[in-house]
User: What shape does this take?
Amino acid sequence: MSATNVIVAGVGGQGSILAAHILGKSALRQAAKTGKPVQVRIGETYGAAMRGGKVFSHVRIGDVRAPLTPTDGADLIVGLEPLETLRVAIPYLAPGGVCLLNTTPYVPADVKMGRAKYPELDGLLSALGKLGRKVLSFDATAVAQDLGKPQVMSVVMLGAASAMGILPVDEESLKETIKEEAPKGTAELNLRAFDRGRDVAASLLKTGARL
Amino acid sequence: MKDDLYLAGKPGTETVMLGNHALARGAVEAGVELVSAYPGTPSSEIVEALNEASIGQGFYAQWSTNEKVAFDVAAGASLVGAKALVAMKSAGINVAMDTFVTVPYGGIKGSLVVVVADDPDAHFSSTEHDSRPLAKQAEILCLEPADAGEAKEMVRQAFDLSHQLQLPVMVRTVSRVSHGSANVTLGPIQRTEKKLGFNKHYDFQYRWNVYGPPGTRSKHEWLVKQFPKLEEYAEKSPFNQLKLAPGSRIGIIAGGLGSAYAYEAIRRLGLQDQVNWLKLGTAFPIPTKMVGEVLKNSDKVLIVDEGTNWIEGLVREIAQRTGARCEIVGKGLDQAMPMWGELDTDMVVRALAPLVGAKVAEDSARKSLKDDLAARICPRSSTLCAGCPHLGSYWGLRLALQRYKDGVHLLNGDIGCYEQAGYGIFAENLFSNDDSHLWKAQSVYEMLDTIYVMGSALGMAQGQALAGYKDGKVVAVAGDSTFFHACLPSVANTAWNGGQVVFMVLDNRWTAMTGHQASPTTGRVGNGSPAKSLDIATAAKALGFDHVLTADAFDIRTVKTALDEAFKLDGPVVLVVSGECRLQTVRRERNVVRPRTTVDTDKCNGCGTCLQLGCPALGVGPDGEKSEIDQILCNSCGLCAQVCNRKAINLQGGAH
Assistant: This one.
């Protein structure tokens, strides 16, 4: 069964749902261009919290019907937040899968109130490395802030993901979808964010840093 | 997310669409004329989309005060010939149940499509309630989509079916369909020329008066006699697909979303075209002949169903009727798959493998690696938002109750954002069956003792008070939307029958939890047009409450003072605590420069009092001791400044 399974993991408000929809719509856009039809399924999981709750979006492209990725079936996890990336990687990251991680944590209230401990980032990265094939990490929040808008972090991550050669979607289709889906007046900024993410990932891949 | 295809997309366009938007699009394609709902996750986006779309599209949409009202509004429209849709979540159908089971007795003139969104795994709900048996109880057709594409098509066709059958048609979705996205190909939009009319004697005498002649019994007889039409439809429905595999003695019958998991499980095990396959899109009735074909041609049949073992029960009934002798495996006695939670492909693979003699390998090294990792992750409890007015309401309640330290107070919660005060952060040290322990609330998240269904808090509190509970104060809370949804009869009941209860109505002006839909106190209707803003205090007075108090949620002192007074009064009290949902204020006043909230580290002694407020913007700074405020999250509400005993938290540049 030929399919690519991507999970975007993060915290409510980080833009994971938008990123997942951009991926899914880009896959259809490319299918329309190439004449090779695909099925797209996006399964969103989020809890009751309006802001700050965990959010996982399963994006499945290919010969798929179900909204959920099978156990050990994620080819790529786009992790917008470290803890949530680990949480979703444990059940879903494939032994040959790859994790792309934004290193800025979004500390849960449980930790802030002194009732729980946030996992150490280094230990978390090596753990993810054992669970899958490869981990690529960088501070995407800082890149987004550098662009003047922390909200474009998810698109920075999408850009980085597209440079990794795992997505069944080409750069052009992604950019066209971003142009269409970006909130009014932010298309240019989002495209810049996408390119910056691509550049960061490309140079990380070149140097082999943290792989 | 830009996704307005549910109203404007061109026919023929293929897109990836949210299930709820696809359901809405189906209604628009069918030429819907009236839409009503009360918001409830995971159903809310259906009517949210249609509310937005309604202006200029020639149909009417509304948020109703509750699901029964919404159902009545839609049913009424259908009686004059309109195409009406009503949507709700699983819990909502219970509220609408009275009309839901009665309307079929009188039949439908236009069309009435009832969309019910169930929530297996209880992502957003208090139960995993399976609504499909209710279609049988109402004796109407129930369709069940496997994905967004089918959801759109089913709703579109349900309007015609309802009209032909003269009965409501139910469409049951689940969270993974409603909140999942899939390929959807848009169809043409049908414009309905409004030709509404009423006929007292439509098809048979006194049709619309279920109690009038010819009597309820004969109307039930009429309803039951429609059943063959439903069965006939099930046999020819395009949503039911039968494919027998010559030579195979293994069958799979899969309903709704279960068919998606079954499809992938079959491929995982390499069984394409090697099993007898029946995909069901009708959840009630199911097609007897098609099911019979699978049973006849198989020795073992696996039933894959999302929710309870509903389909399995119906299949067993057919097996009994047809004398089929095959083994039926599902969620019933054999428990091949659990009846709780939701399905996934792995579960279906594990249930299917033994039937076909396949082995599913388990990697024990990988499992122990996963166990090790799982031990390192920490929870992310659900919280109220930064700047939420309920943080102030609950802090005021905590302060007021401190006066009665020895009391075992009963705080009855209800359904809405404010129910977070009963979740507990990282629940630990739980004591069971031990009345001697006084549970010490360490934050606002550990206050509420009971939470059941919408509107139940006040009635329960009244019961506790009238039964003679004297160990502490009896309090009930509810939100503005809940107040109008299900509290009004309870408010009247409490005014009438009495009881020493303090009922706090936490009015944040929006149905915020389901995504900020308008509520009766918002001052707008669903499509954004200005409307009356109903006043809760006036309503409580009009319904007979002698003691009605008010307070400002963002001014904790006023909440505490009002509660001090409320606890001293004789008889039931309503306290309306007002403060708009901060996210909405900030959204609306995007360009307003708000004061920055900062911590004076010279004054802060790290006592942690402000952290107990539970605001997500508050945390501990890099020194691991003194408080710090996340400037990205902070919405400058000023509540933390009020709770700090050392005046270490300040708003720079004025009050909130």
Chain A has eight helices and six strands.
